[in-house]
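Reviewers of the previous submission asked for a worked example of the structure-prediction workflow described in the proposal, so we include one complete record here. The input consisted solely of the amino acid sequence. No template or homolog information was supplied to the procedure at any stage.
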Amino acid sequence: MNHLDNSTIETLRRLICEAAGCEAGSPADLYTLMLFIESRTRETVGLTTVKRFWQYGGLSSKPRQSTLNVMARSIGYRNYDDFCEHYGDCTPSSDIVLGEGIKVADLKPGDRLMLRWNPGREVVLEYLGNSTFRVLSSEGSKLKANDTFQAAFFALGHAAMLANVIHGDSSWPLYEIGQQGGLTLVRRLSSVGE
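From that input alone, the workflow returned the following structure tokens.
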């Protein structure tokens, strides 16, 4: 299986950004992504390759299969084909996320959030810094109190991809919440300094 269409590659870009906790919007973000990919794969990836992959600064080209394999390995897949098999047929269309949401960049350590999604799931989270959250309480979810994970943003009506989840004695590279209809509530409960 070899899906080289733009929507599949865009899905891979999005998932890597969410796992790394940045948006690929600046040179610093791209450097962070390069370090993230290298730390997860133990393979050297050049900054120019990262810029091309995210089409930063007008750089663009169809990624090589070897680049796609490294990128997929950075988020826990054996290779790009494995990513496509695991993720389904990799044909979701791109979507600009609009409306109510919370960007991690706007949070301070100690801020608390509540998220809800169907059917009947709810978690209260504490932001720890460095794109990392701790679950304070959980109803109906596989997530439990004291689990930790990383995320870049939470948007009303959209699923959220959680990366590097530590769940008791186990870890999950990626965990998606709100698959059926997205998040139904995204609320900041308290903010440090209020």
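The CA atoms of residues 107 and 143 lie 21 Å apart. We consider this example representative of the routine output the project will generate in years two and three.
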